[in-house]
Amino acid sequence: MQDDQARQSKAYSATVPISSAKATEENVSGVSWAAIFSGAAAAAALSLILVILGFGLGFSAVSPWPSSGASATTISISTAIWLALTQILASGLGGYLAGRLRVRWTDVQSDEVYFRDTAHGMLSWAVATLVTAAFLGSAVSGIASGGAQAAGTMASTAAPLAQSAMGKMGEQEGGGSGPVSYFVDSLFRSENPPTQESPARAQAEATTIFLRSMSTGTLEPNDKIYLGRLVAQRTGLSQPDAEKRIDDLFAQAQRTVEETATKARELADEARKAAAATALWAFVALLCGAFFASLAAVWGGRRRDSAVA
């Protein structure tokens, strides 16, 4: 009888610490933030190092001289590959450290351990990504707004082009610089220089008429006749020859402006495509980083458990 009571007492005293340990573990969070932040710090640091290295390699491969250096296609493909490689290496290191440095879980099923390790790797990648985005916010916003800025540049090209081409309208001397001013000056070229006292005034009037006609797309008959008189007076041409010169130069000016606008649209479209491709490749690279961070965290957690055992 006494032996049975002693065995029951020993069994009870042996079960108390185990139940107490289980109760304590149930009240403890399954997240080890110290390991997560450690892995995130390592991932962010390695990502910064690799990005700087990528900038150095990229600048060394680009050359302003023709037929020298890598092409734009090669640079784009290399950038996408390097971005994905940076995410894989940095996120993998951060996830491995987060799994290897985490608190060891006792009396936890293997499926739960696998899930917790995966979550630690994902959280480490998320923290590192947020830290990197905070320090490189200007670059991220630049990529996101690249297409919008290109579209705005395309839409606002015509007016600044005409203004810069004409120069200052209120000046009394000179015809300014730019394609349209060149055509206006061509109206008054002559082998016999005129003797009028203020030729700049006539050029200013012709510039005003050209600006209005370029904005509407047509040269009014009254404006054409008036310009013909000015050109005939300045150059010594007949009225029909002067009007023919006006028609030829006006058509040439229109073609030049249209070609400039087309070129601006092509550049805007190229910038839009480049911004879209960069954003898509960044998305793919971030997904790769999240996957490899979780995978490396599982591997690091298993290595820790086997080392402790």
Element-level helix/strand string: HHHHHHHHHHH
- The mean pLDDT is 75
Helicity, in percent?
A: over 70%
Give the structural class.
Answer: mainly alpha
Tell me the β content.
under 5%
Bulk shape = rod-shaped
Radius of gyration: 37 Å
Number of self-contained structural domains: 2
- Main β sheet profile: none
Brief overview, please?
The protein folds into 2 domains: about 35-155 and about 275-309, no CATH class; about 155-265, no CATH class. Helix content is about 80%, strand content about 0%. The chain is built from 11 helices and no strands.
Kindly describe this structure:
The protein is an all-alpha fold. It folds into two domains: 33-154 and 277-308, no CATH class; 157-265, no CATH class. It contains eleven helices and no strands. It has helices at residues 2-26, 33-61, 72-100, 110-135, 137-144, 146-155, 158-166, 179-187, 199-216, 221-235, 239-308. α2 packs across α4 (110-135) and α3 (72-100) packs parallel to α11 (239-308).
Helix and strand topology:
Layout: H1 2-26, H2 33-61, H3 72-100, H4 110-135, H5 137-144, H6 146-155, H7 158-166, H8 179-187, H9 199-216, H10 221-235, H11 239-308
Using brief descriptors, characterize the structure shown.
rod-shaped, 309 residues, 0% strand, 2 domains, 11 helices, mainly alpha
